[in-house]
Specification:
Layout: H1 2-30, H2 34-56, H3 59-76, H4 86-107, H5 109-112, H6 128-132, H7 140-158, H8 164-173, H9 178-185, H10 189-214, E1 225-230, E2 233-238
Antiparallel strand pairs: 1-2
Length: 239
């Protein structure tokens, strides 16, 4: 009992320290501190770019949109009232800007160029969700299975309908908590969890279908059930 109480007190103290630190940073940002803005960019530029890139799938557009996000942060910090954390506020701006740009792209550029997924030549654009599809077995099937599936995850993720795609991105790739996702998307925890379940199920079905289609061409036969490890949990995937 004392151990649990000690852990709770420690967690509370840590949370208070984080809030106090964030409040100090926000105060510096509102005062126009260049050092505070340098810290902000160093802290959030890479994760924000990563999120935006996965939504837009274009390095140049992602870079421009990320820059726009920080311009919005700079201009809007005076209105930040700490109703949410600084991180979720920035992520909400990033998601809004990326979604707006994506809608613009479909309305304008989509008329000029194909909006089909690009061929599978994106070896250098791996991301976190791919690395979660890892199983402990070392069989030949496992090696090829995971290699093939990993190369398809990003493309299939892009095909998930909104808002399920965003839920999977924020939770399984950006590793945000349910509470943070609820704040960013301005929805309830129940809605976040529901979207995440449906998004994961849709993605799993797409990947299973791909393996069933490609298995014969690879000269492999999938087992009746394949445990796929995702964030430390085995999920039975019927192949």
């Amino acid at each position: 009992m004392s151990v649990m109480a000690g852990a709770s007190v420690s967690d509370l103290a840590s949370a208070i320290a984080i809030r106090n630190e964030e409040a100090a940073i926000v105060a510096e940002l509102k005062a126009g501190s260049e050092a505070a803005y340098s810290w902000l960019i160093a802290q959030y530029h890479q994760p924000i770019y990563s999120l935006v890139y996965r939504i837009l799938d274009d390095p140049a557009d992602a870079a421009d949109t990320t820059q726009e996000v920080f311009i919005k942060v700079y201009r809007g910090i005076g209105r930040f009232n700490a109703a949410s954390s600084l991180k979720t506020w920035i992520y909400r701006i990033a998601l809004h800007e990326a979604s707006n740009h994506r809608r613009w792209w479909f309305r304008h550029k989509g008329r000029e160029t194909s909006i089909e997924c690009a061929p599978e030549n994106e070896e250098n654009h791996s991301f976190g969700l791919k690395n979660t599809l890892v199983d402990d077995s070392d069989s030949p099937f496992d090696s090829v299975f995971h290699s093939e599936v990993s190369s398809r995850v990003e493309a299939e993720l892009k095909n998930l309908p909104e808002p399920y795609r965003t839920a999977v991105l924020l939770r399984d790739i950006e590793d945000l908590s349910y509470e943070q996702i609820a704040e960013i998307t301005e929805t309830s925890l129940g809605t976040v969890k529901s979207r995440l379940v449906r998004g994961r199920e849709a993605l799993k079905k797409r990947l299973v279908r791909y393996v069933n289609e490609m298995g014969p061409e690879l000269g492999l036969r999938a087992p009746a059930a394949k445990p796929v490890r995702a964030h430390g949990k085995d999920v039975e995937v019927q192949l």
